Fold this sequence. Notes:
By secondary structure, the chain is an alpha/beta fold.
Amino acid sequence: RFGQMSSILINGFNPTIKFKTYPGLAHGACAEEFRDIKQWYQRRVRGTPSESIFVGGFSQGGAIALYAGLTCQKKLGGIIAMSCYLPLRNDFPASCTTNKDTPILMCHGSSDPVVQFRFGQMSSILINGFNPTIKFKTYPGLAHGACAEEFRDIKQFLTQNTPK
């Protein structure tokens, strides 16, 4: 169920999104992986105002969304990162030029055994140093998954930050 819901949230209510996975991201992201995401972004959004676009993901997808969103050369509407961390953290803040004030929502369960809560929390603290719009939401007792409260928070974030 979560995969379908995340597809809907991420792909503008189109559950036919195609996912590409990158083995080894947990051990260090490669520039090639982020280049693929940026090329997809450029093809996909042609004609759409970039400020209307939100990138987001869960776990590895959240890490990619954070990195790609923060380093994107187009101004985004927002970034949603669930149960993840910021990869290549030493690239920041220098790599973030365009989206230093883009709204970011990071969500993390306090009992996550896959991506430890402290890694998400430390990432949000680092990002807050150059993008003070970041919001970090904690879900007590939640493991590596999502909950109804998290989806309500995401809906509220999208509603508040979507251009009218």
